[in-house]
Each structure stands twice: as C-alpha cells, then as structure tokens.
Design a protein that fits this description.
Elements: E1 2-6, E2 17-21, E3 27-32, E4 38-40, E5 47-55, E6 67-71, E7 79-82, E8 88-96, E9 107-112, E10 120-123, E11 129-134, E12 142-150, E13 162-166, E14 171-178, H1 251-280
Parallel strand pairs: 1-7, 8-14
Antiparallel strand pairs: 1-4, 2-3, 2-5, 5-6, 8-11, 9-10, 9-12, 12-13
Length: 286
C-alpha cells in the first residue's frame, strides 16, 4: 500500500506521519512521508485497515480525517491524502468610538469574497469581542469581508465593511468603533409649551346673602377716600305699618274688613229699596 501526501494547492508534503490499524484496533504499520510526500506499507495481509494521520508535518496544515483502506496483493495505486490548511482565527472587537469601552450585542457577518464558502454570523459578548475560525483554501490566504449588520443598542451602525486575508493558522483582528446616537433635535417651528398657573377656586356663596364686590377706595383730589359703589343691585326695603302685614298673621284683619264692607253694602241696598217703595205709593191728588 502506498500513500501520496499533498495539500489543497497540490504541493507534496514530506514528514506527514501515519499509522494503520487492523480490524481489532491494533497498530499494523506506521511511517512518515519522504521528501516527495510518499509512504509505502509493505507486507500487509489482505484486508481492511483504518488509516490514521497523526501529524501533518507542517505548521500550515491540519491532519486529514481518518478513513478505511483496503490492502490487496500485488502493486497498488497510490492513495492520495490531502491535508487541509489550518483555519485562521478571527477576533472581532466592538468598542465605543469616544471612550473605547467594549460594546456587547453587535451582530457581524463574515463572508468569503470569492464565494467559496458560506457567510458566518457572530455576536459580540460582554467583553465586546467575538471569535470565529475561518476556512482557508490556499497557502496565500483567503479574502473575507466583515460587515456589521446590527449595532448595539444606543449606537449608530458602522456600515463601512472591513476586509482581511485569512492565512493558514494565522490570527486576525478586526475592530469596529461605533458612535453613540445623538438625541433628536426639535424642529425650529416647535416651541416649548407655556406652563399655565392653576385656576383660582371660585368664592363660596353664603346662603341668603348676595355676593358683594370688595370695595377699592380711591383717593380723591382732597386726599379723602372716595365712596365706592357696589355692582350688586340694592336689596328691596321692607314696608312698615299695618298694610305691610301679609301671610298667616294678616288673615283675621282681612276677614274683619270684609265683614264690615258686606254689612255696609247690605244696609245701602235695604235703604234703596225702601225709598223706591215710598216713591211707588200713589198720591191723593194734592
């Protein structure tokens, strides 16, 4: 069995270490690739083995995933194993532009420029940072665009994207500084409301009495206070004498007067009748 070791760019990789495990999980063979990136396992019994890479032999690459291989008698076609590049370690920092304090709650999108992968979305934590591993597809690095899609509460969105080239196993740091939002400015046509004084309570009315205006004496030319006039109409004066009595206490007086008038009228009527009778008697011719 032969192994040919390469990276994604097609470069051969010397120094990569492998072991073969049999179906019982025991090591059946081991070795490292030579300068040409080749490794041969000799005198293997026919069967299925588990190929495991223990070291890539390179600071830029990570090991390939384990896989099952079949050993057959006779010459074998080399099995090509490709080691991927190590991912880049991106740290996104979010700070206040004025004070530099860290800002949690920012949402950031990380997108490969060449569309070789999917967009990764991260959010800054309490320390104002977020970390993510970015796949790298080439030895010279993979370009990415980092944009802020949501600013922390109370801050303006930093719409300017950042661009980086993520290199194998290399750390990358991007810092976004947000500006606090300004309070809204009132329109020139808007005026502040004028405070109004509380209304004074109306004076209480006393039953049976009329309200009178408070006199305001004014000085006359001689220095004496001028008389004041009330705007309220004068109270009616009560009549005096016997004719002023009305109501229940005047009833007997009225009844007595009515009786006298009736008696006088009756006497006048009787006298008139008598006189008419006398005038009606015939005379004796005298």
């Amino acid at each position: 069995m032969q192994i040919l070791k390469k990276d994604p760019d097609g470069h051969r990789m010397p120094g990569a270490a492998f072991i073969l495990l049999d179906d019982a999980g025991k090591e059946a063979a081991s070795g490292r690739t030579n300068a040409e990136g080749r490794l041969a396992f000799e005198d293997l019994a026919t069967g299925v083995y588990r190929l495991k890479e223990t070291s890539s032999g390179s600071p830029l690459h990570t090991v390939a995933a384990d896989q099952d291989v079949i050993a057959t008698p006779g010459p074998a076609v080399p099995l090509t194993v490709t080691d991927p590049f190590k991912p880049a370690n991106l740290t996104v920092k979010k700070t206040d532009k004025s004070s530099g304090k860290p800002l949690p709650g920012a949402i950031v999108n990380v997108t490969p420029v060449d569309s070789s992968g999917k967009t990764v979305t991260v959010a800054t934590g309490k320390d104002g940072t977020a970390t993510v591993q970015l796949p790298v597809t080439t030895r010279t690095g993979t370009p990415y665009k980092i944009t802020e899609s949501k600013a922390p509460s109370g801050y303006e969105l930093d719409s300017a994207p950042a661009k980086i080239t993520a290199k194998p196993g290399a750390p990358e740091t991007v810092t976004f500084a947000d500006t606090p939002k300004r309070p809204p400015t009132p329109s020139p046509t808007e005026t502040a409301p004028t405070p109004t004084a509380p209304a004074k309570p109306a004076p209480e009315r006393t039953p049976g009495k009329q309200n009178q205006a408070t006199p305001h004496p004014e000085a006359s030319a001689s220095g004496a206070a001028a008389p004041t006039h009330s705007s309220a109409p004068p109270a009616p004066q009560q009549a005096t004498g016997s004719l002023a009595h009305t109501g229940a206490d005047s009833t007997p007086w009225l009844l007595g007067a009515a009786g006298v008038l009736l008696a006088g009228g009756a006497a006048v009527v009787i006298a008139a009748r008598r006189r008419r009778s006398q005038d009606a008697v015939p005379t004796d011719g005298r």
